[in-house]
Amino acid sequence: MVSMIVGLLLIAFTVFASLPAGLGWGPEIITCLKGCAPVIAAFIGLISVFIGIADIKDKKEAKKEEAAEQSQNP
What we know:
The chain has 74 residues and is an all-alpha fold. The protein has helices at residues 2-18, 26-72. The radius of gyration is 24 Å and the shape is elongated.
């Protein structure tokens, strides 16, 4: 419950900070997002590759277990 309240407060602060009548940080936020986009995309791509490799390993292991199970039961 506390984490939900903190999350809502942080979202409210972000909206307030980006409004022109608030802190007026809108242009700086957009600049930061533009600069971070390639780095974030690289991290997401790297994570996707690792997940894909783990999935392939799991499928191979499942096939081995299935083959071992079939060989034990005639």
